[in-house]
Amino acid sequence: MYELFLSIISGIAAIYSVYQVVNFKPNPSKPNVTRPRLIVATIFLTVCAIGMYSFGYNTPERKEANYINSVLKEFEKGDRLLKGTKLSEASNDDMAKIIQKINKIKNNVNELSPPDTMPSEILTAQETMVRGLDKIAESIKYVNLDTFYDGSDLTGVSLIFYKYYLSDHSDVKNLIKTKYIDIINDKT
User: Fold this and answer.
1) In angstroms, how far apart are the furthest CA atoms of the chain?
2) From CA 78, how far away is CA 106, in angstroms rounded?
3) Rounded alpha-carbon distances, angstroms, from residue 46 to 4, 13, 59
4) CB under 8 Å to 122, separation ≥6 — which residues?
5) Residue 127 near residue 154, CB atoms below 8 Å
6) Tens-digit pLDDT profile for residues 55-68
7) Dihedral of CA 137/143/144/145: which sign?
8) Residue 165 in contact with residue 114, Cβ under 8 Å?
9) Which of 34, 36, 48, 142 gets the highest tally of CB atoms within 10 A of its CB?
10) Which residue, 88, 96, 74, is CA-closest to 180?
11) pLDDT-based confidence at residue 187 (cuts at 50, 70, 90)
12) Do 144 and 138 meet the contact criterion of CB atoms below 8 Å apart?
């Protein structure tokens, strides 16, 4: 996180140095401060800000962790939705709302794109989760308990893929929110 802070400070310093270059007035008491030196300082601070952000904060591990956090956040929404409602007591309007929310979660998961550094198994896990959510929505629509269990199994399998990925990549696991690690461990 300190990389982001240093990147922001470097960016602010670069903006300030651009301001100094634009409003430069030579001062005879400080002959070492010249416009070319201010331009060099501006370039240096800009490169520092970009470098700190690109190589310190915006690393592949952070991109992978953000992706997995997003997928698990959507999973948690669906899990809370299904646990918080009694489908046997829900009216047709309630069922339609639940199906609509599950479809929204499915679309959110489907729109996420894993970083290029992740293995193809993660893309498979995402597709499996989407298929599972689709089956859950279908089971609620047609009141089919077997399809519901199939959808639950598919989402559980996708969580297993994520769990194995995180067990092999401890640097990414350290960047995942703790509540999502607990979800993975509880569901698998």
Assistant:
1) 86
2) 9
3) 14, 8, 19
4) 114, 161, 162, 165
5) no
6) 666 677 778 888 88
7) positive
8) no
9) 48
10) 74
11) low
12) yes
User: Which residues, in sequence order, are CB contacts of 137 under 8 Å at separation 6+?
Assistant: 99, 102, 103, 106, 151
At residue 77, φ and ψ (nearest 5 deg) are: -60, -45
**What DSSP designation does 176 have?**
S
CA angle 121/1/186 to nearest 5° reads 45
CA atoms of 95 and 85, how far apart (whole Å): 10
Residues in the chain: 188
Q: What is the pTM of this model?
A: 0.69
Decide if pLDDT at 104 tops 90.
yes
For residue 65, how many C-alpha atoms fall within 13 Å in the half-sphere facing its CB? 17
Measure the CA dihedral 16/18/20/22, to 10°: -140
Closest among 79, 185, 187 to 133, alpha carbons compared? 79
Domain ranges of the chain: 2-57, 60-187
